[in-house]
Amino acid sequence: MSIPVSRRLDFTEIPVIDMAELVAGDDDQATIDAVGTACRDVGFLYIQNHGVPQHLIDDFLVASREFFARPMDHKMESVLSDRMRGYLPLRYRSYEGEETAATSNQQGYWMGVDRPFNPQNKLDGPNVWPEEGEALRSAMEAYYEAVHVLAGVLQRALSLALGQESDFLANLHNPAQSLLKVNHYPPQTDPTTVSNIGVVPHSDEGAFTILWQDENGGLEIESKSGEWVEAPPIPGTMVVNLGNAMQIWTNGEFSSTPHRVINRSGADRYSIPFFSYARWDAPITPLLNDAVEDLGADICEVYQLKAWRRIFPIANILEPA
């Protein structure tokens, strides 16, 4: 029996928010309020006029398609490192040891801030690039730089929406540990179990994710009533969803919403998520709404390494200190 096709969202359920004034440096209160409402009610929002040039997306897609079409032995020369950089093969085992353990029907490529190995911070490390991979490297680095600026705009807007100083989230993030990934999902017209869909149901671990998705769709979110609903692509927009760290920091005021991917389009699907992670020593503990700060919580490095070891056992992620 196939997984039922999900109901398609209308755009009153996930709001479309114009970011033009915020991107221009104007703390427009109406936009900030709209962002805050979406984060409290849904945990997902579409953003338009986000400031990331279309040509950077186009260049990234051309380079990604070329790389993913290469023979497997060539791609495996840059396989995912223990610092979450490099190639993640198709149908890797994910969420090891949980009831949701599955073989995700996607392949991907990861990069982050290029830093030398750091014994103090196991999230730091050099990027991994394939031989004859200059096109992929230059496209990913250019896109990362542009979306990193957008992440800073969102950090400011989210901070103000929470009634905090404008640099509240920036202070938790700098220096950045954020990661960029490009995903390729082969066509999947009739999946029969959750264990063989594009990405199994999950919530992201970081503060928030900025996602570009192509016209083929496939992203689905779980509503608060437990219903799976499609979040279809809207031309010229990106999707922002909150992660578990944000829900923890805000003591539940902002929601981290479960989501999954099923590529029913009959065509290859590509998406580009940017994962905004806190600085390595940021506390992952409730910080707002009368929360007790000293809970013995993990710092971001330990929190993130634990998550990566659980989600990506193929990468032999380092043990947290």
Would you kindly provide a written description of the structure presented here, covering whatever features stand out?
With 321 residues, the chain is α+β, with helices and mostly antiparallel strands. The protein has one domain (7-315): B-lactam Antibiotic, Isopenicillin N Synthase, Chain (Jelly Rolls), CATH 2.60.120.330. The protein contains eight helices and 15 strands. The protein has an eight-stranded mixed sheet. Strands 1-12-11-14-9 form a five-stranded mixed sheet, with no helix packed on it. It has a two-stranded antiparallel ribbon with strand order 5-6. Helix 2 (29-41) crosses helix 5 and helix 3 packs across helix 5. The radius of gyration is 19 Å and the shape is globular. It starts with 6 loop residues before the first strand and ends in a 10-residue tail after the last helix.
Question: Which SSEs are present, and which pair or pack?
Answer:
Layout (H helix, E strand, L loop, with lengths): L6 E2 L7 E3 L1 H4 L5 H13 L2 E5 L5 H15 L3 H4 L10 E3 L4 E2 L7 E2 L3 E6 L21 H28 L6 H6 L5 E7 L13 E4 L5 E6 L5 E4 L5 E3 L6 E6 L1 H6 L9 E3 L7 E8 L23 H12 L10
Parallel strand pairs: 1-12, 2-3
Antiparallel strand pairs: 3-13, 4-7, 5-6, 7-8, 8-15, 9-14, 10-13, 10-15, 11-12, 11-14
